[in-house]
Write a structure and sequence with these properties.
Order of helices and strands: HHHHHEHEEHEEHEE
Number of strands: 7
Distance between the termini: 42 Å
Shape: elongated
Structural class: alpha+beta
Largest sheet: 5 strands, mixed
Helix content: 55-70%
Number of helices: 8
């Protein structure tokens, strides 16, 4: 938490102080006047008038009490607002570790709720900035690898011109890898941008899923992995067919990639009223406990039990943002009998539409 240096009371404090002083002073004078002019009989009035301090002492006491009362109340109300103001300036200067709520003590009111909201905002900004910095680092690392291999291939080509066919194939592979990475980065950036506009139309989610399963079966047969598919009744929703196709395809192909040979991937679709739930479970090693949500972060790849991890680590991130862009949800959990289970829920219509 960034500390704040002591500061003199601001304009809000003095405005509140004057307002409370006038209010309390007026109330005291009205009360004193009523007390002074409503005594019941002359005897009590004579006793009161005989006192040497009868006219000055109450006025002095009332004035002092009004001053302390007004200053305390004005300070109580103005101090947390001053902390908030200085907190906003600190955030604007880039000090995202600034927190205000610990400075207001144990008070429980709307101002304390406002300081908690401020701290939540600052924490979210700090998290977003850290995520952005990590993304830039990962992107630079991913771009550096194929570029280094391209430079190496060009160097070998200059040294050994007779290896032109082999080196051209290597250059072509690395260029395709760069193109795929850039394409996925652009897709992810568009999905994360709230201002990006995607065309929507009626899409039958079950037909889309069936087509993806049919295509993925060809890939699975190469390693002896089959897909056991349990479709549901037609479920027509409003969305972007290309994004939905890519989301389901990334999850299913990811399940095939991490499944051992001669195993199966279970794909189950279920329609429950206005919501469709799709479950994809593999028979792989799964992910460590506590990292179920991390696999949906960009460039996050988990290597378990010596399994070689390929790709950029963007497939599940794209699937997550595509699903959430359609008002759905995606989550990962330990599968029944081992492996990883990914559950995707979709509403009947796209909220943003």
């Amino acid at each position: 938490m960034t500390p704040f240096a002591p500061r003199r009371p601001g304009r809000l404090f003095w405005k509140l102080f004057v307002a409370f002083l006038l209010a309390s002073g007026t109330s005291f004078l009205i009360g004193a006047g009523l007390f002074a002019f409503t005594r019941p009989d002359a005897a009590e009035r004579a006793v009161f008038d005989a006192l040497p301090f009868n006219r000055t002492m109450p006025l002095m006491i009332g004035t002092v009490v009004s001053l302390f009362f007004s200053a305390g109340l004005a300070w109580y109300l103005a101090r947390p607002i001053t902390h908030l103001s200085r907190g906003f300036r600190a955030i604007a200067d880039g000090q995202l570790t600034t927190r205000v709520h610990p400075l207001v003590g144990t008070r429980r009111d709307e101002i304390a709720d406002l300081t908690r909201d401020f701290d939540g905002m600052a924490a979210q900004l700090q998290h977003l900035l850290q995520t952005q910095e990590r993304l830039f680092h990962d992107v630079s690392h991913e771009l550096r690898s194929p570029l280094s291999r391209l430079q190496l291939a060009i160097g070998l080509l200059r040294q050994s011109p007779e290896k032109i066919p082999d080196m051209l194939l290597r250059v072509e592979r690395e260029a395709e890898r760069l193109n795929s990475l850039i394409e996925e980065l652009l897709t992810l950036a568009r999905l994360k941008s709230s201002s990006a506009d995607f065309g929507v139309s009626p899409v039958d989610l079950i037909d889309l899923l069936t087509a993806i399963v049919d295509d993925a079966n060809f890939e699975g047969r190469a390693k002896g992995c089959t897909i056991r598919y349990s479709p549901a009744a037609p479920f027509v929703t409003l969305g972007n067919g290309d994004l939905l196709y890519r989301a389901f395809e990334n999850v299913i192909r990811n399940a095939i990639k991490f499944s051992p040979p001669n195993t199966s991937v279970d794909v189950t679709a279920d329609v429950n009223g206005e919501c469709a739930v799709v479950s994809i479970q593999d028979r792989g090693a799964g992910v460590p406990v506590g990292m179920e949500a991390d696999i949906f972060e960009p460039f996050k790849r988990v290597d378990t039990d010596g399994v070689e991890v390929t790709g950029f680590g963007l497939g599940l991130a794209i699937a997550k943002y595509a699903v959430e862009r359609h008002g759905g949800s995606i989550r990962a959990m330990a599968g029944v009998g081992g492996g990883l289970r990914v559950v995707i829920s979709f509403p009947r219509g796209m909220p943003s539409a």
